[in-house]
Write a structure and sequence with these properties.
binds flavin mononucleotide; alpha/beta; globular
Length: 191
Amino acid sequence: MTTFTAGYMVGSLARGSINRKLARALVRLAPNGLELREIPIGDLPLYSYDYDADYPPPGRALKDAIAAVDAVLFVTPEYNRSVPGALKNAIDWGSRPWGKNSFARKPTGVIGTSPGKIGTAVGQQHLRSILAFCNAPLMNAIEAYIEFTPNLVTDDGEVTNESTQEFLASYMNEFHGFITRVYTALPRSSG
Ligand SMILES: Cc1cc2nc3c(=O)[nH]c(=O)nc-3n(C[C@H](O)[C@H](O)[C@H](O)COP(=O)(O)O)c2cc1C
């Protein structure tokens, strides 16, 4: 079995982020053959195309980090029914300069949690639209809208509810299969 590496971006900068807890759970539940590492987004200045001629170190670090992984997983809250500004800013950095879009042909997945019943569903739809424009193959299903109940995931990523744990493990398994299929159809060496 081929081993793939997925970088994950956490869409929240909050110290107590429930999405960061979810990300820790996903790292623990990833199947053999899928390694995860974080792509940090918190040090990026606000993007402007004035930077395109000479990206500053945080912008370059982000693009290098995306280039170094086989896939990107977005673990994100929904802010005001959309994508948090920090995450949108990171995507804008990664997508530029024009012609050097880091997300092109990079398999992606989206997952998120909020205390609300619809568990980031609306924000994820916006993110899906953004990723489509960025030409990133996106796993359509399984969709994962996680309602965060108190202590659902501990600080170090242990899932306390068995059916949620099984679901998250199946999500990661499906993501691994999706990455494999993208690269089977389009080997990494081409275009
Ligand atoms: C600016 C802001 C906007 C929010 N908008 C939404 C929203 O649209 N839908 C939702 O379910 N929760 C919303 N919330 C509540 C978040 O789901 C909650 O703060 C959650 O903890 C955010 O995830 P995080 O802890 O990973 O940052 C919002 C929170 C903030 C700070």
